[in-house]
Amino acid sequence: MVKGGLTTRGPRNLLRQIREAMAGGGPAQERLDMVVRTIAQSMVAEVCSIYLRRASGELELFATQGLNPEAVHNTRLRPGEGLVGEVARLAQPISLSDAPSHPSFSYRPETGEDPFHAFLGAPLLRGGRAIGVLVVQNRVARRYDEEEVEDIQTIAMVLAETVASGELLAQDELRDVEVAPHRPERLKGQKFAEGLAYGVVVQHEAPLAPEQLLSDDPVAEEKRLAEALSALKAGIDVMLEGGQGKLGGTSFEVLETYRMFADDRGWNRSLEEAVRSGLTAEAAVDRVRNEHRARFAKARDPYIRERLHDFEDLANRLLRVLAGDNPGHRDLPDDAILVARNLGPADLLEYPRHKLRGLLLEEGSAASHAAIVARALQIPCVGRLQGLRDRLSEGDQVIVDGETGEAYLRPRPDMLAAVQTRMAVRAQRRAEFDLLRDIPAVTKDGTRITVLTNAGLAVDLENLDATGAEGIGLFRTEFQFMVSDELPRLDAQTALYKLVLDAAGDRPVTFRTLDIGGDKVLPYLDNEREENPALGRRAIRLGLDRPALLRMQVRALLAAAAGRELRVMFPMIATVDEFRAARELVDVECDWARRRGRPLPSLLRVGAMVECPSLLWHLDALLPLTDFVSIGTNDLLQYMFAADRTNPLVSDRYDPLSPPALRALAEIQQKCADSATPVSVCGELAGRPLEAFALITLGYTRLSAPAGGVGPVKRMILSADLPAARRGMNVLLGSSAGSVRGEIESLARKLNIAV
């Protein structure tokens, strides 16, 4: 009996026959021929053919039942050629009742396919990439129904796995079949953290490949799938309710969307149908994931592409539930290059630092938390590498070039040798910086510059001695909150701040109070959805709206600094009233401690961060109230130019070395000098020699740089002659150009300054 071109025995029996054919002995070609005969017979098709992608990109006919056998291994289709090429290009099935009339049809006379009209092709997908195509054809002009399309997709999925595993092909054939990318490639992205590294790929949350594809008991597999889906949804519910754990630092509203996708009827139905067709639960998840990747990855709409990541993350998490594991990290090889779509700060910190050589990201920005942590750990990082994960396999060799913002996948030996030479040069340069560690940063004309470092992690404290920094000019307190599953208690905060002060010894430490909100959302704090969170309730605004949160942090700082100097500054001060209100909370906590006989700091200094342009015209009112100010150039400049520094589409629309930016910085420095208010720069500019040269030329004598920038900036300072540099800079401040970077570089070269 035939139903819609399929035998009533169904796909489950067909899969069993395919498995028997694959397990049989004999040459690889004989087993392939057996597979196509079995499929043709079961689907009542007059033709069944398997095409596989060669390393050249061509699709070669590897086996056929019904076409001319002499065409096997002789017929090759260029990428995108013919209907077979179209199936591979779209990575989707194509069903046609009259194939020759389709505009993509390509006639190959050696195949003898003239009489066949009905065409059904499905891609063999691996990691969202088509490594081949499975085709069935019939003489009569008929359209294959949905059930047949579903069946051929299931068969194609099994064939893709067996080809990749080497079960169907001889090893000499397998080497030239592109089951995964293997050619050298160069991807251009953006540099997030400087440095060079090479090693082997380790995928963050690497997809688990199913060990068994075909099930012996579909009813039991359907039950396993249902139980795993329930466990998956329950775990997300725990996150939504503020329970233990969080998914990559995502916000509450993102988790709600994530939960919605876990309930998506189409996704759940696709999984159930794949299991009913004879696949194991794991194989069903893998098949549906591959189909989603192939379909969504071609979408231009960023929202639709984001949905791909939601479904893919869910699939990976579901596979781990089926395996009985919680999502977690594996042991790393000694030369690991971590590859991910994006990372939260907690994700990166969970990997063993001594084995992690570099980081490659598909997304992110230089201002993202992963990038900041990578710079703190001095791990080279390149981001915005489109299509990265589809171009790499676990264990591939890769180069991370954090100097040019590039990644070299499976590099040639000569490229690897060149990078090793460059790494040796960098090591020599680091050794030169080490010799400067204990030398005071004094310019040639005798100006003393204080070089501090930025910190926020326990590992940063090791850099304090290693770099020779004179203290910590910015300690970001929010990282403790961001890597925690719940609000850090008072004693935990006190312990961290005491650890920092102990490590610094006599060197000054400036603590920035909690700077969260915007893109730094804590899942255990209730947050209302904001249309523009970067300009919403964040940093000091959140602290003033939730005074208990800010007071607890100030109380921990006062307790940690008992008997020692304490420097505290508030982020994102936009009005003088905000600073007054924040300082009053510090006074309240001091009174609270005094009444209870608690020891207070020997000296308390309270400052403000200048990162909102509104303060530029109110410094005369603010500065008399502060003990010091620090300029956060990252935020100040993005607000000045109305260009989100985390958005790669606009982040390069301005240059910090432009007349407007330099004039603003010059004005702040002059106002601070007039009022005798100590001022420092703690943004990223302070860690780049050319930008730091511009800062000291404008009169700044206190810079706080990332650990990797301390040595290069100190070398620049030691080579600088400020009177001559200032004469040249004064001319540039009056320029009408959009950027004077080139002119500043020329000035530095003319004065022999090491930038």
Defining traits:
755 residues; alpha/beta; 8-stranded mixed sheet; 24 strands; 43% helix; elongated; disordered N terminus
Helix content: 40-55%
Radius of gyration: 31 Å
| Rounded average pLDDT | 84
Strand order of the largest sheet: 9-16-15-11-12-13-14-10
Quote the distance from N terminus to C terminus: 81 Å
**Shape from CA axes?**
elongated
The largest sheet is:
8 strands, mixed
Count of DSSP strands: 24
Unreliable spans: 1-9, 242-255
Portion in strands: 15-25%
Structure class: alpha/beta
User: Regarding quaternary structure, how should these chains be classified?
Assistant: single chain
Structure annotation, total helices: 26
Give a brief description.
The chain has 26 helices and 24 strands.
Q: How would you portray this structure in words?
A:
Helix content is 43%, strand content 16%. The radius of gyration is 31 Å and the shape is elongated. Strands 9-16-15-11-12-13-14-10 form an eight-stranded mixed β-sheet. With 755 residues, the protein is an alpha/beta fold.
